[in-house]
Amino acid sequence: TKRQGVTICKGHKNYELMLNLQLGIRHSVGRPAPTKSLKLKPTAFDAEQKLWTKFPPEGSKHTPPHQSCEFKWKDYCPLVFRTLRKLFNVDTADYMLSICGNDALRELSSPGKSGSFFYLTNDDKYMIKTMKKSEVKVLKRMLPAYFEHVKSFENTLVAKFFGLHCVKLSGPIQKKVRFVIMGNLLCTEIPIHKRFDLKGSSHGRITDKPESEIDANTTLKDLDLKFIFRLQKDWFQEFCSQVNKDCDFLEQERIMDYSLLVGISFQDTEATEGEAEPDCIRTTSGVSSTDVDLNPARWASVRLGINMPARVEFTVRSHETQLVGEPTGEFCNVVLFFGIIDILQDYDISKKLEHAYKSFQYDSTSISAVDPRLYSKRFRDFIFRVFTDDS
Ligand code: ATP
Ligand code: CA
Ligand code: CA
């Protein structure tokens, strides 16, 4: 499959921004690591570097000379993110190399509607998302709870955050660009043939791309889904328990609008190179097939949502707006990757207004802007219908 995004070369409109970002990260990550422990003092969470670090092109006492424009740099809660990286087993040198190595980043063609930009590191490991001021506020607010949550549940499905930063461009318009660095959920050696962004709502939840433009990099939505996912029993139990914990956490933090991102790699395919939708070999057996994938090397790296062998059962909808179609009894072996993304939208006043407005026109539970409790309920109801155990 072809790689996602456009490499940011010299002349690209965000070339300098990319250089700034790389310089800034190298500056913050490169500083000597303090404590080795995973315990943090409460003050770590409000420690915002009040001072901006200035990066003049000619260099300064603390910053190297560079080829970009002059800019300023700020890290949010650097100690917390350093500890998170440690918790998530991110090696500092590898992290720097992925983001600030000689390879350029790639810019994705705005995958979301919110106006954020997305960048992928050349090795596909990290995804960088520009953020609105309100999203930074939400992340800062929930950081202590987020830290506790991801520390308590090593199988958590919520997006992994590794850093939160801001670049301020010098000059008359002091434009600020805020961004978060997270793990790319779909980073894998094996090909991802389809990806779905699932919320459990039906309104507008269908791709607007014509069939001919849909490929393996297209993010499909709830109404495009024509399978249910069947996980092995013990994995399914772990999945349910973790989705419940993660949703409780998000609900408590008054978060909504998040999705379960699912990447599917079809096994036993009759694919020709580069084909978007390979024909997988369907079987009609209702019982677990034994030929899933017994390669121990693969199994060793299976974690909840990472590299998980499963089966999909094909479904058909009886009408266009039906969220989950009827099972057909036809199966295909797959490997799944999934996690919960876009968790920085809180239930603010604008959403309340949007909801009030939309309720005049649509069934109010079918749209995505509902309150966090309803959101989480609808999300779980849906997720537990499209994921089931394989028996
Ligand atoms: P909107 O608010 O309109 O939904 P957004 O700009 O907030 O959009 P996201 O929902 O965060 O964007 O992400 C858009 C798409 O980018 C997702 O559907 C997914 O395909 C991809 N994406 C986002 N985060 C990740 C991640 N951590 N790993 C892999 N892919 C991701
Ligand atoms: Ca989203
Ligand atoms: Ca969003």
From TrEMBL:
<protein>
    <recommendedName>
        <fullName>1-phosphatidylinositol-4-phosphate 5-kinase</fullName>
        <ecNumber>2.7.1.68</ecNumber>
    </recommendedName>
</protein>
<dbReference type="GO" id="GO:0005524">
    <property type="term" value="F:ATP binding"/>
</dbReference>
<keyword id="KW-0808">Transferase</keyword>
<keyword id="KW-0677">Repeat</keyword>
<keyword id="KW-0547">Nucleotide-binding</keyword>
<feature type="domain" description="PIPK">
    <location>
        <begin position="11"/>
        <end position="387"/>
    </location>
</feature>
<dbReference type="GO" id="GO:0005886">
    <property type="term" value="C:plasma membrane"/>
</dbReference>
<keyword id="KW-0067">ATP-binding</keyword>
<keyword id="KW-0418">Kinase</keyword>
<dbReference type="GO" id="GO:0016308">
    <property type="term" value="F:1-phosphatidylinositol-4-phosphate 5-kinase activity"/>
</dbReference>
<dbReference type="GO" id="GO:0046854">
    <property type="term" value="P:phosphatidylinositol phosphate biosynthetic process"/>
</dbReference>
